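Appendix B. Chain record.
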Amino acid sequence: MTCEVGVKGAGSFPSYNSAPVPDSLSLWELRRRSLVRARKRLRAGHAEGLHDFRVALRRVAATASALGQRKVERRAGEIVRSLSSDRQREVDRALLARIRRLGLTSEDAATALEIRWKPPNAGGSRADRAAEEKRLRRLTRKLRSLASRAPAGALKRLLVRRKEAEAALAKAPGTGDDQSLHRYRLRVKRARYLAEDLVGLGRVDFELAASREKAAQEVLGRWNDLRLFLEGIDRERKKAQRRGAVRLASELEDLARALEAPLAGVRREASETARRLSTSFSFAARSA
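Structure tokens predicted for this chain:
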């Protein structure tokens, strides 16, 4: 049995600014502005607001890592991680809604999961929101400061980091190893962000690489979303068993079995995508 249960990737990733900018000063300003815009969308309650905000933060962290700004990288990463469980809950609820429409589980089981995976309380407690706002203000101030005094040499440094990222992508993930495939997914993301930064600095020759890696990232992301969803189903099944909810536990087990084939399918697609990408980089390295 096959079914389409992945969270659709189209529209999930904000387009990058491909207009050339002269140096890292403008690159830092682009990152700051993207972060501020994403935060406004999150506050306004946009459907993809949380996703876009985390992407903007990851982009800040990726640029900071490439340009040696470890404190900025750490601060952005801390905020991303603090929002990870909320974002995973969003993804799980979106998948659950699609599974519900396909009739792969009972209404009772779907409702039980919906209740347990209810959306977070508008950014958490007042103290949590205040702490996050403080971290974000500190981060945006630092980005503004970097934009006003960025040193030269950003392009050269990004090219070096991109070369390292390409070498990492040339190494294919292990066959049948989910953790290896997951790590490869993260390497694809890093390489894509570096390519997009280079495009932002005027190296339009990296546009094709950025586009190809974005497409690969979306395929790998669909597999990862369904994998994590099934891990969540298994946790809820075990909880149901412990509290004696035999019927719910049985229905969740049935759902997990129903999704085995779709998971295998998206995993094959993800593995094949990773294999093709690694082969292309490996061939390019040998031909250089």
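Further analysis of this model is presented in Appendix C.
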